[in-house]
Every structure is written in structure tokens, then in C-alpha cells.
Write a structure and sequence with these properties.
Blueprint (H helix, E strand, L loop, with lengths): L9 H19 L5 H38 L1 H25 L10 E3 L13 E3 L8 H7 L14 H22 L8 H21 L5 E3 L2 E3 L1 H6 L4 H30 L1
Antiparallel strand pairs: 1-2, 3-4
Length: 261
């Protein structure tokens, strides 16, 4: 996948790539060892930190662009409108991911081994190896196996999850394609047209929810990624999706800034 344009984000993207190999292994054999389960937990913790940094940086840049759209509307009004459309669609999906049922707390255990975390020795530490069951997400997102697009086997929550992913993808692509960024400056428009193509491709690839062909038939995207997976693996993938959503907003902000400045 494409790396973040924002500096300092390459390591987070590399962690995502590394995790995908673990997910592939998990798909082949769900009987994962404690070490692999622990690895999912460590990656989740790191990705959450990276996602938190993106959240703060995005908020600051959007606020600055909003002010610029008032002070210099000729240059910044159209870009801010584009960013607002994408950011609002992102917030809808992020709000769903922030629900208690989706953002599960780690199982905790006594810190008998005296593990040091962030320079301290807490009384309780995460027990990632105990988060190997799939029941929670199986029950929250699914009512059965995938049959067809008309009968996907989702609960209302599962259907809403997929709808919000599609909504974010489609609204983001539409906002970027129809953006009037650079309409009064041919040089800016040329740069923007180049930058937006890679953005659209990234969004299409990262948020593709088409059914997946597998040995023996077809699975829905949701079944393929979350059905009968260990809870910690699902939590990790949700954390990565949250980071991906914020990455789209971050890269959009950087692409616009690069095009104009």
C-alpha cells in the first residue's frame, strides 16, 4: 500500500503490512499460538498511538484550513469544502468504530512477572493470549453464513458497518473527483489532478467491500475479515481501519497543501 505523505508515518504503514501477513496466516489456521495472539495485541497498541497522532494533526490542519478559507476564499474555500465532505464521512465511520461493541477493551491479568510499560510497572497488564474467542463479533455482526448480496447473513449492526464503509469510500471519492480546488489557477489544478488520482486509488483499494472468491465458493467481505476470527485479531483489524480512515484525511490535507503551495 501507499505510504503516508505526512512525515513519520512510514513505520505505522509498515506495521500494517506486517500485520496483513499475520492475518493471512490466521485465515489459514485459526489455531494460533499465544505468541501470535500477543503480537496482534502489541500491534494494536502501536497502531492506536499512531492513529491518535493522526487525529490530532488532522484536527489542527482542518482548523487552519477553515481559517484560511475565510481569509483567502479564492484559494482555500474550495479545498476546505472538499476536506469537510471527506472529514464528515470519516467521522460517521469513526463514530461507529468507537462504539463499545466495536472498540473492545483488552482482557487484563495480574502483572505477576513485573512487566514494565511506559517506564512503570502496573498492577494489571493486557492478557492478549486470552482473547482467542470469536463469539462477540460473530454474534454482533452476523446471523449466519453469507448466501448472496441479497442475503449476506448480517445483523443490523453488521449491515450498518458495511454501509458506513461504503458511504465513506463513495463520498470521499465523489468529493475528491468533484473538487473545485485550483479552478482559478491552472498550475494548482494540474498538480491537484495528479495528486487526487493516487488518493482515489488508495481509497478504492483500502475500502473495497466486494465479495471475496475463496476456495469452495464466495464470502462477503465482512465474513472474510471478521467471522470466526479470534477477538484480538478483529480488534487489531478495526484499529487498522480507524488508522486508514484518518490516513485518508491526512493524505488529502497534504495533497491539497502540496498542490496549492
Amino acid at each position: 500500500k501507499k505510504k503516508y505523505m505526512a512525515s513519520g508515518q512510514e513505520s505505522a504503514r509498515q506495521r500494517m503490512i506486517n500485520l496483513m501477513y499475520l492475518v493471512f496466516i490466521a485465515m489459514l489456521a485459526l489455531n494460533m499460538s499465544k505468541e501470535v495472539l500477543a503480537t496482534f495485541g502489541v500491534i494494536t497498541t502501536d497502531v492506536k498511538k499512531s492513529s491518535g497522532l493522526l487525529e490530532g494533526n488532522n484536527a489542527d490542519l482542518i482548523s487552519a484550513m477553515k481559517n484560511s478559507s475565510v481569509e483567502d476564499s479564492l484559494k482555500w474555500k474550495a479545498p476546505y469544502e472538499t476536506v469537510s465532505l471527506v472529514s464528515n464521512a470519516a467521522d460517521e465511520l469513526l463514530d461507529f468504530l468507537a462504539k463499545d461493541e466495536m472498540k473492545r477493551e483488552f482482557v487484563m491479568k495480574d502483572n505477576e512477572i513485573g512487566r514494565v510499560i511506559d517506564g512503570e510497572v502496573p498492577e494489571m497488564i493486557p492478557a492478549f493470549e486470552l482473547m482467542d474467542k470469536s463469539e462477540h463479533f460473530d454474534e454482533y455482526l452476523f446471523v449466519g453464513q453469507y448466501v448472496s448480496p441479497e442475503d449476506p447473513g448480517y445483523t443490523e449492526s453488521g449491515a450498518e458497518f458495511v454501509r458506513l464503509i461504503n458511504n465513506f469510500r463513495d463520498k470521499s471519492i465523489s468529493a475528491i473527483e468533484n473538487s473545485k480546488t485550483g479552478e482559478n489557477d491552472s498550475v494548482v489544478k494540474k498538480k491537484w489532478d495528479q495528486n487526487k488520482r493516487s488518493l482515489i486509488k488508495q481509497i478504492e483499494n483500502s475500502f473495497n467491500t466486494d465479495p471475496v472468491n475463496v476456495q469452495g465458493g464466495v464470502k462477503s467481505w465482512l465474513h472474510y475479515n471478521f467471522f470466526r476470527f479470534p477477538e484480538i485479531a478483529s480488534i487489531t483489524k478495526l484499529a487498522l481501519m480507524e488508522e486508514d480512515v484518518r490516513s485518508v484525511v491526512s493524505e488529502l490535507l497534504n495533497a491539497i497543501k502540496q498542490s496549492i503551495e
